[in-house]
Design brief:
single chain, 97 residues, mainly alpha, two-stranded antiparallel ribbon, 3 helices, 2 strands, 73% helix, elongated, transmembrane
Length: 97
């Protein structure tokens, strides 16, 4: 069961876990600005890795009700994975927006 969708989801999940449980507590703490800054690099890293593999491949990715390309699939799944963990982290660290 190594579908392209599953591999992207696992990659996104690993990046989000490393970011919120290792990198952000050490480098950003409770600073919304720093978290946002480092998150650009984390999500960019996910796009870079997936893009290196699927760029111009024509591979279609299924997102529940529609199909899309690798770029949008990566962003949508990254956001879906990140948002619950981000909410938990913000509450735990008492991040002020």
């Amino acid at each position: 069961m190594s579908s392209p969708e599953l591999s992207v989801i696992i990659l996104n999940f690993c990046i989000v876990l490393v970011a919120y449980f290792s990198i952000y507590p050490k480098l950003a703490g409770s600073s919304f600005e720093k978290i946002s800054f480092y998150d650009v690099f984390a999500s960019g890293f996910a796009l870079l890795v997936v893009g290196l593999h699927y760029w111009e491949s024509g591979q279609a990715f299924n997102v529940l009700l529609f199909s899309t390309n690798w770029f949008w699939f990566t962003l949508i799944t990254y956001a879906a994975i990140e948002i619950p963990i981000m909410i938990w982290y913000f509450k735990k660290q008492k991040v002020k927006i």
